[in-house]
Amino acid sequence: MEILHVSAECYPVAKAGGLGDVVGALPRYINEAGHIAKVVMPMYRTKFLMDNEWEVVHKGGSYMGNWWFEFSVIKEKTNKLGFDLYLLDINGLLDREKVYGYGDDSDRFLAFQIAVLDWVAAWQHHPDVIHVHDYHTGLIPFMLKNCYQYKHISNIPTVLTIHNAQYQGWMGWDYSRKLPSWDPWKWGDLDWQNTINPLASGVKCAWKVTTVSPSYLAELRREANGLENLFEYEKGKCVGILNGIDVKVWDPATDKYIKDHYSIKDVEAGKAKSKMKLCDTFNLDFDKPLIVFIGRLVGEKGAELLPNAIEDAFYYIGRRMCFLMLGSGEPEVEHRLEAMKPMSLNDYNVYLGYNESLAHLMYAGADFLLMPSRVEPCGLNQMYSMRYGTVPMVRKTGGLIDTVKDFGEAGGYGITYNHTAVGDITHGIWRAVELYHNKDKFTEVRNTMMKLDFSWETSVQHYIDVYKNLT
Ligand code: ADP
After folding, report:
1. How far is the CA of 29 from the centre of ligand 1 (A)?
2. C-alpha–C-alpha distance, residues 189 and 209, integer Å
3. For ligand 1, which residues put their CB under 6 angstroms from it?
4. pTM score, two decimals?
5. In sequence order, what are the residues at sequence separation of 6 or more whose Cβ sits closer than 8 angstroms to the Cβ of residue 450?
6. Which atom of ligand 1 is found nearest the CA of 16?
7. pLDDT in 10s for each residue of the chain, 471 residues
8. In 3D, which of 73, 77, 82 has the Cα closest to residue 35?
């Protein structure tokens, strides 16, 4: 089977979060399972683009409403990522440094999707399945089904994977004129509460919909940022498939971002070296348990509760632990975390921004990882941290339910709590400190976690079954 993935992110080309990690890994595992997976994404102005060699494979032009634009598709020459990687360039629209965050994002991703379909329509042999990811590519199933110019490829099955249903890409109905001419009787496939909702449209029109964990799918029927009824109605074609992690990139024994490699056999000594580096760099006390947070500083992640939780932990539990925060996001949260620096007694620091290598060092050097998420479709951080022997402290939601079992239960290994609330987080921190000082239990928990298998091998089979059923 030949599967074309269409995505806004793909690690290491461009990544803003878990979507990038998944699209950077899943296609390679599909290839390894004996199929052909390709990825097409926008051509941003990234380091990966500059550092690699490319050949032009297609040039075309299309209309978005009245606007005529030209595009080209380039292909990476050496199959560096283990799959064919195509970048689609639309001059002035996509070739920017960031993936998201521009005022014209709706136009950028709409033009991208039109160009992708124009390109696919010109292939001699069409892919067996088009697999789209999140709202940025959520209009492709609608366009394939209902736009006249794609009629001859409308029989290609589509799969939509939802990595995050909070973001839906809402646009006004004026955008309907920017789509290639479509069957007006099908306006209901675009509409959700009087706006064009690309994610809702994807759910309605894709042949199959997957979410990145089974528990998240169950949650979406109760809490989906306005789409609850839709998920209830379409439940028959939805399936939850837990993400895997790329064990080639995320392996403490080979990780290219860390110098002091280790495995389960020498985990204590190995982690200590990375911890020492972190403590030196960020002025932290090596002897205390190191609790870290890595992620977007947004409400979804419960980030605005972190300052209060840390203050409460210091006040009620005592200065018995260190905190190191890495992330960027809402300015208010950034400001509060930054403002807490002066109160540090060698036990608190924060790095504001995106830093891939620091993230790897933190997974390796930390003792605990905080994840008080309100919404966590799958969550990769907890899986990375467990592979690196770092105990996750998670709120029971979405994929965190499917991957972390509290160490208080038989065979458990993490710290879990019920609510995204300061009290629950602080209680989790207290349990972490106690666990850290119970050396035998701590070692047992570490060993159990590091033996868990979160690799893609199992999950990829579920995707292949989905494709097979469609073709
Ligand atoms: P989401 O996609 O919702 O942001 P995930 O847990 O699925 O959350 O994926 C987060 C990914 O982004 C992980 O690989 C994590 O290490 C990375 N990440 C998030 N914030 C940062 C940051 N500030 N610096 C480096 N890596 C980050």
Report:
1. 21
2. 15
3. 17-19, 21, 164, 294-296, 326-328, 354-356, 359, 378-381
4. 0.92
5. 264, 267, 386, 387, 389
6. 12
7. 999 999 999 999 999 989 999 999 999 999 999 999 999 999 999 999 999 999 999 999 999 999 999 999 999 999 999 999 999 999 899 999 999 999 999 999 999 999 999 999 999 999 999 999 999 999 999 999 999 999 999 999 999 999 999 999 999 999 999 999 999 999 999 999 999 999 999 999 999 999 999 999 999 999 999 999 999 999 999 999 999 999 999 999 999 999 999 999 999 999 999 999 999 999 999 999 999 999 999 999 999 999 999 999 999 999 999 999 999 999 999 999 999 999 999 999 999 999 999 999 999 999 999 999 999 999 999 999 999 999 999 999 999 999 999 999 999 999 999 999 999 999 999 999 999 999 999 999 999 999 999 999 889 999 999 999 999
8. 82
If one counts every other C-beta atom within 10 angstroms of the C-beta of residue 264, the result is: 15
Other beta carbons less than 10 A from residue 299's beta carbon: 17
CA of 147 to the centre of ligand 1 (A): 36
Domains and CATH numbers, the chain: 2-244+456-470 (3.40.50.2000), 264-450 (3.40.50.2000)
